[in-house]
Amino acid sequence: MRWEKGRRSDNVEDRRGQSPAYAAAGAAPALLRFLPMLLRSNIGRLLLLGGVLLIFGGKLLGVDVLGLFLGAPGGGEPQPASFSAEEQRLAGFVSVVLADTEDTWHAIFRQQGQVYREPTLVLFSGRVNSACGMASSAVGPFYCPADQQLYIDLAFFRDLGQRHGAPGDFAQAYVVAHEVGHHVQTLLGISRQVRRAGAGRSQAEVNALSVRQELQADCFAGLWGHAANVDRKLLDPGDLEEALTAASAIGDDRLQREAGRQVVPDSFTHGSSAQRVRWFRVGFEGGSLADCDTFAARPL
């Protein structure tokens, strides 16, 4: 993938090397959007009042409560972490990929008469706080609709290549583009519709909705791949195969087999390897938003 000369996104927040408590401060601006909702509930008002009393009580006792919460004694800044050349290269790579998804989705949204709001990509190591709660690297890359941010521990790319047998820069780019796909679903109201549709349903039915949502994010990733290939000529020979290998490697059926478990389709939440490959191809080959309606597709 010819990414080295690409534009880097302004929407990358690097929390690597920070303690999860300190990194929580990065989520504060997004959480402020929910302040009016908290103030409308008695419990929310009590929590806010308790927090204020705790901070001022600490001040009277000479204890910097905020500094303790943020993981920086005395409220100071944490020491900057040092990263290897490979880690720096990966950070630059995901920034370029994110920027390219921004260009793609701005163009698609304009065609639909809409405005694309760019997400923030948060780099972390080990654990991270988001508006969706605390998460460890074990969950893999994820998107939080509550703060409209993508979260990635770059160590996942090493696991993708070594443990899942899916190396390559376009395989890694597919992962980023898939999470951006979830952001697109949030902006289009699809994620909200899925949550409403799942209310009161059985677990198997909720899982089936989740599969369709995840496969649509794969298709949206394919749409970005189409634009990167056709409009900007970023792909090298073999790049498409890298993405398809990655999509296949993280199919629910393959992951269940690798874990020594029985394959149970009703428990799938992301789709089988074949389904994930198919829907990335649909987006990549068609290049049309209308092609990615996984909720209407029968069968998947």
Automatic annotation (TrEMBL):
Bilayer topology annotation: Single-pass membrane protein
Compartments (UniProt record): Membrane
Gene Ontology CC terms: membrane
Short name of any one Pfam family annotated for the protein: Zn_peptidase
Record key words, sorted: Membrane, Transmembrane, Transmembrane helix
Spans traversing the lipid bilayer: 46-70
Entry keyword annotation includes Transmembrane helix: yes
Domain of life: Bacteria
InterPro entries, A to Z: Uncharacterised_pept_Zn_put (IPR007343)
PANTHER family named among the record's database cross-references: INNER MEMBRANE PROTEIN, PUTATIVE MEMBRANE PROTEIN YPFJ
Protein's UniProt name: Neutral zinc metallopeptidase
Source organism: Seongchinamella sediminis
